[in-house]
Write a structure and sequence with these properties.
The protein is built from seven helices and twelve strands. Strand 11 and strand 12 form a beta hairpin. The protein has about 190 residues and is α/β, with parallel strands linked by helices.
């Protein structure tokens, strides 16, 4: 099957699937906007889930980025409402999310239920706090490596790693590979 045929088949299986994007202030903007665009271009329905209502702001590394609307708060959603979860990185975003018990439980429910879960850069920190990385092969931003290893994950230095529906990547340069695997896993569904 050529890439165009495979892409069309993937999009047919992605169309209409619901993806929660768990994010709060300080996320790396490209790790939010580019995967969200890829999901929507493939026909998925995305919902921005955050800790509070109101706009949240992205970052371009250390420079303030744009503001984005929140669709639902963490108190208004549950794992059963969605087919998959996306956790963008940035330094502040996952740190704030993993300090919120409801956000951690929300992320935990996706992995434990076998639903596709996508985390890039520092995003896997939320999954560490959720206690769901042990035994998984994963990647992340290099400073998160020791945290993943200490939590029982096997860390590898690759642009994208897929392990039982869990898709992880290192940084914004990996977004094209991340997006491709994210769409494949979403098309496959629950693991």
């Amino acid at each position: 099957m050529d890439n165009q045929t495979q892409s069309k088949t993937t999009n047919e299986h992605v169309k209409g699937k619901k993806v929660a994007i768990l994010v709060t202030n300080g996320f790396e903007q490209s790790e939010f906007t580019e995967p969200r665009q890829a999901l929507e271009d493939a026909g998925a329905v995305t919902t921005v889930v955050s800790l509070n209502q109101g706009p949240i702001h992205g970052m371009h590394h250390h420079t303030l980025g744009d503001h984005f609307d929140v669709d639902k708060t963490i108190h208004q959603v549950k794992c059963d409402d969605f087919d998959a979860l996306l956790i963008p990185g940035g330094v502040a975003n996952p740190d704030a999310l993993r300090g919120n018990d409801d956000a951690v439980a929300f992320a935990r429910d996706f992995v434990k239920s076998g639903k596709p879960t996508f985390a890039i850069c520092h995003g896997p920190q939320v999954l560490i706090t959720a206690g769901v990385v042990k035994g998984h092969t994963m990647t992340s931003y290099k400073t998160v490596k020791i945290d993943l290893e200490n939590a029982g994950a096997h860390w590898v230095d690759k642009s994208v790693v897929v392990d039982e529906g869990l898709v992880t990547s290192r940084n914004p340069k990996d977004i094209p590979d991340f997006n491709a695997k994210m769409l494949e896993e979403l098309a496959e569904g629950r693991h």
